[in-house]
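Reviewer comment 2.1 asked that we show a complete input and output for one of the modelled complexes. We chose the manganese (II) ion case, as it is the one discussed in the main text.
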Amino acid sequence: MFRSPPSRSCAPLLLAAVLLLAACQKEVEIPAPDPEPTPTADNARGDNMALGNPSGAIANVVAANNYLIVHPQFTAGYDNSRGQARWVSWHLSAAWKGSAERCDCFEPDPLLPASFYAVSTFAYSGTGFDRGHLCPSDDRDASDADNAATFLLTNIAPQAPDMNQDTWFQLEAFARDLVADGYEIYTMAGGYGNGGTNAQGVLTTHLAGGAIAVPARYWKVLVIIPDDSNDLERITTEGARVIAVDMPNSASATAQPWYAYRTTVDAVEQSTGLDLLNALPTAVQEALEEEEDAGVVW
Ligand code: MN
Ligand code: MN
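Response of the prediction step:
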């Protein structure tokens, strides 16, 4: 992966940026994985929220629309007014992978305060939307408990079936292929806006009588590094590959492959109001966020 030489086409574009022209593109050559990495606690399972808390979510019931949920398997900033997370953040490496079977055990999240709207799996029945995972089931199959956690409904949001099962899935599979090749990945994902298209082609803004928003679009940001320890120190412009995507919550998404939806982290931040990667040093964060990935995609 990432064999192409680095080509940074945007260094001289500071002036052009003022004109809001097309985003800079970057083809990254990051270090190849160590064929025999030293096992350490860090490269086993990284902190799901190591790259920051994009909305400053807190685990206090008064923050109903920005409520922090921390499971061992993923972290979320939950918005009770939308019946779903604004963002879910998780780490993926070989240490999270195994052979547990997909449990299909959708359940309300026990960490949701009793005063919040309790999304039930029935809320999705007959809507023409999938119960779309943000942290994928297949990213958490080292144990039955790990896999079951991905079916907590705080990790689920309504996705257009074709988009979920094709375009969104292909990006998930790409990420797992990288992990199989010796990389580890920090990922954040969520939906924003209102109005997705269901399996019958009907534009839908809400489910469950208004309790669950149907996002108009889904975004995802992946930060990819060779599997090793001291992750945060290695996330630099030369050490990490960052892929951001933003795609419509509609079967129309399948008209193009996932990589056609690549954009910049800055653009995702503008659309969502989140501050992604905010645990990184400011200069690193700014450099990684302004460039659109143009690297090899499979
Ligand atoms: Mn690591
Ligand atoms: Mn940021």
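The helical segments are 14-18, 41-44, 144-149, 161-180, 231-234, 265-272, 282-289. We note this here for comparison with the apo prediction described in Section 3.2.
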